[in-house]
Write a structure and sequence with these properties.
5 helices; homodimer; alpha/beta; three-stranded parallel beta sheet; Alpha/beta knot
Chain lengths: 160, 160
């Protein structure tokens, strides 16, 4: 699941990910995707021991902490505030149980609907909303593989 | 992963899912979520042997077959046609390799951006776009658990 979250982060316009815990095999597979499809020059993949220190650092930098949780405020009711929130954004998504600390230290707890579904979907929808869909036109200059969109079938250009 | 796809289908407004293959444990866990959070009256969860027969039946019924694939046409370039496509929609998402047959028998091959990421995210974005975000206000009459959105922390009403 974490792999899908990270691939969504990259494909939907995030600048990188902090991953709590250690998973060498997963990081290796991610770096392979980035090497082929692009993003090596800027997309950060960092394993960390404790997310709380990152949250505190982020606050000191003057950024905004967004926690995506089904218990939060519906994103539809938050949409008009997107323009005013201070960047950079740190977006927190949790797999299983997320500690209460994050709820109380996030600037905003935002729900992608108040129903159980998936942190993968939650991150995708949030990024799609803040970038207003433009992220889906992203091109990666250092990509070795590029897709030529097709009505049916597959067309890919390979370089490098 | 299939569990996440199904939870997204339910939470984002689909009427049900056909799952190719057999996975009793997974179906049981899904039905448990539906029993608690609602949707039992209409949300179909059906295991099937072969997706192709469903596609053919769907066509005979006059519905539209949408295949979500990174090789397809960017959803942003398809958006204006949403109003004209004939319902009901059968949306095909594949985990690993999807057979060429589906590419050539779908009415539309649509890409949620032409980058590798996740079928979970692809389905969520597609449904969010066709329902214009309204699906995130969905309420389930038969729900035994309901969330009261909170700025911080969790508030849930349990009934039945």
């Amino acid at each position: 699941m974490t792999t899908h979250v990270i691939l969504v982060a990259r494909a939907f316009g995030a600048k990188g990910v902090y991953i709590e815990g250690k998973d060498e095999k997963m990081v290796k597979s991610i770096l392979k995707v980035i090497d082929s499809w692009g993003g090596s020059s800027y997309f950060l993949v960092k394993e960390i021991e404790n997310g709380k220190s990152i949250v505190n650092e982020w606050k000191e930098k003057g950024g905004t902490i967004i926690h995506l949780t089904m218990y939060g405020i519906n994103i539809n009711d938050f949409q008009d505030r997107f323009e005013k929130i201070k960047y950079p954004l740190l977006i927190i998504v949790g797999a299983e149980k997320v500690e209460g600390w994050y709820y109380h230290n996030a600037d905003y707890n935002i729900a992608i609907g108040n129903q159980p579904h998936s942190e993968v979907a939650a991150l995708a929808i949030f990024l799609d909303r803040i970038y207003k869909g433009r992220e889906l036109y992203m091109e990666f200059e250092d990509a070795k593989i590029k897709i030529l969109p097709q009505k049916a079938g597959k067309k890919v250009i390979r370089s490098g």
